[in-house]
């Protein structure tokens, strides 16, 4: 009985979808603290991690008498000593609903490029602002980068609400200013939360200190935000990762379909050479397919011998991406 229960649990765990998210914001807005709080309150820490966290909070923490949840993420010695995040820190955890990969990105202006690394694969971005300062230059910069990276879902986390006595007017003023920015950038799915990461208000559980707030907790939202419709099925993009040549009779181009759909017989163009051919077969480990779509990993064979190497891209001739040598 126990074995079948374990098997059921493993099968269920395998079927969970994965949400990749990043946190961004200015220095000391509480990004690392928020993620630490998510892990702590959702009971995703081991006993020895908790003991080390309590010990380190007393020794090098920046949260006074509180546990410093940021220490769960700030792993570099310099980060702990200065109380800042320099490198992108990844944390993996799961709940009953979903698996998560969180990228905690730096807030310092000179480390903004590290945020792009964390955001390149994200489905959702959490932009933190300090309730006392509201929307600042770094908030605008990070939101612009999020729109540039094509991240579909944005969460505005108005943190440190405890320092403004959970004032609804302060929250509404920040939300209005932020939404006027996201409208200009074409970001349509923006959800706003009043939080206190240090005290845990509205992070995992709804807070009694914000009776005027009618939304869910942040974790409830992260567990239910729909991401399966985010995929682009219109523009076919196939970056070649490997050229497979097991024998003289077979030459295939392996990769993961980044977007779009491809079928046997479809015409394709290789970039940057702009040479064209047709898809002869779509090969997978299980056998051949008539069609494939993102995010499947497949091997394509072509009817013509054209020179294609790793790093080139296959697209449709009537739907070309913009080709340039510079950003």
List keywords for this structure.
327 residues; 8 helices; 16 strands; single chain; alpha+beta
How would you describe what is shown here?
- Strands 7, 8, 9, 11, 12, 13, 15 and 16 form an eight-stranded antiparallel β-sheet that branches.
- This protein is 28% helix and 27% strand.
- It is built from eight helices and 16 strands.
- The radius of gyration is 23 Å and the shape is elongated.
- It has helices spanning 2-15, 31-41, 47-60, 77-82, 112-119, 137-148, 168-185, 218-224; strands spanning 18-25, 89-94, 99-104, 124-130, 153-159, 189-194, 237-239, 242-247, 250-256, 261-263, 267-271, 275-284, 287-289, 291-293, 297-302, 313-315.
- The model is unreliable at 76-81 (pLDDT under 50).
- It starts with a helix and ends in a 12-residue tail after the last strand.
- The protein has 327 residues and is α+β, with helices and mostly antiparallel strands.
Number of strands: 16
Determine Rg (CA atoms, Å).
23 Å
Which structural category do the helix and sheet elements fall into?
Answer: alpha+beta
Strand proportion, as a percent range, falls in 25-35%
| Main pleated-sheet profile | 8 strands, antiparallel
Overall 3D form:
elongated
Unreliable spans are 76-81
Order of helices and strands: HEHHHEEHEHEHEHEEEEEEEEEE
The N- and C-terminal alpha carbons lie at a distance of 59 Å
Provide a count of the helices: 8
Mean pLDDT: 84
What percent of the residues sit in helical stretches (DSSP H or I)? Answer: 25-40%
């Amino acid at each position: 009985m126990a074995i079948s229960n374990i098997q059921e649990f493993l099968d269920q765990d395998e079927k969970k979808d994965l949400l990749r998210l990043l946190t961004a914001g200015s220095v000391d807005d509480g990004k690392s603290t928020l993620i630490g709080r998510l892990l702590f309150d959702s009971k995703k820490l081991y006993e020895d991690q908790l003991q080390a966290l309590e010990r380190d909070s007393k020794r090098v923490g920046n949260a006074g008498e509180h546990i410093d949840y940021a220490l769960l993420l700030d792993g570099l010695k310099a980060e702990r000593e200065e109380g800042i995040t320099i490198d992108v820190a990844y944390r993996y955890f799961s709940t009953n609903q979903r698996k998560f990969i969180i990228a905690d990105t730096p807030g310092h202006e000179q480390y903004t490029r590290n945020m792009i690394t964390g955001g390149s694969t994200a489905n959702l971005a959490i932009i933190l602002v300090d309730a006392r300062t509201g929307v600042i230059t770094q908030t605008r910069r990070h939101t612009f980068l999020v729109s540039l990276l094509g991240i579909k879902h944005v969460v505005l986390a108005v943190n440190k609400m405890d320092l403004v006595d959970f004032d609804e007017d302060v929250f509404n003023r920040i939300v209005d200013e932020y939404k006027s920015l996201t409208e200009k950038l074409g970001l349509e799915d923006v959800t706003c939360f009043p939080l206190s990461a240090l005290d845990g208000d509205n992070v995992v559980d709804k807070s009694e200190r914000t009776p005027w707030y009618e939304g869910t907790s942040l974790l409830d939202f992260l567990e239910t935000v729909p991401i399966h419709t985010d995929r682009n099925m219109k523009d076919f993009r196939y970056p070649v990762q490997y050229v497979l040549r097991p024998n003289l009779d077979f030459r295939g181009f392996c990769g993961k379909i980044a977007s779009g759909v491809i079928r046997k017989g479809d015409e394709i163009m290789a970039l940057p050479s702009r040479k064209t051919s047709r898809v002869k077969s779509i090969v997978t480990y299980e056998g051949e397919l008539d069609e494939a779509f993102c995010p499947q990993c497949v091997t394509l064979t072509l009817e013509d011998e054209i020179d294609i190497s790793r790093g080139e891209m296959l697209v449709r001739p009537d739907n070309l991406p913009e080709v340039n040598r510079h950003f």
